[in-house]
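Risk register update: the risk of archive-format incompatibility is retired. Evidence:
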Amino acid sequence: MLVKTLLQSHFEDQTDYKMINAYTLDQKKEFAADLGAMINPQWSKDVYSFQYFATMLWFAALAIYEAVENTIWPPFGRQTHPGAKARYNNILENAPRPYDFNQILYYEDLPQLVSFWENEMKEDVSVNFDLYEMYGSLYLAKPNTEWRGRELIDRVDY
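Archived output:
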């Protein structure tokens, strides 16, 4: 009882766990580099808008990849780069907004899409783990067709 009283006096919000983001100097430099890549080039407003969208889409896709990677190989030790979601949020909060900035797209739609696909992919990894460890190549079309060309032998032809 005394321990609970002491803890309550030190933690006013009464939560059991609160996420605190801490970054190394190198990780902070990555945030700065991301912003520099957006700010430093002299782009027209249309090109900047496209670059902004492409950058945000890249970090959204990378977040899905990281969710799968962290499921298969949980991170161990120091990470050299901040996570994709942190980098997405860094640009969202600190880079100049394009003239046609769509608040719903960047604050709601893309994050919801990422969350949906993270969950789908993590579920798929849990059910089909062996397919994610497959080494080699996989053809997405029939070999020996005019469109695809001859069948290639893995580690012989490439």
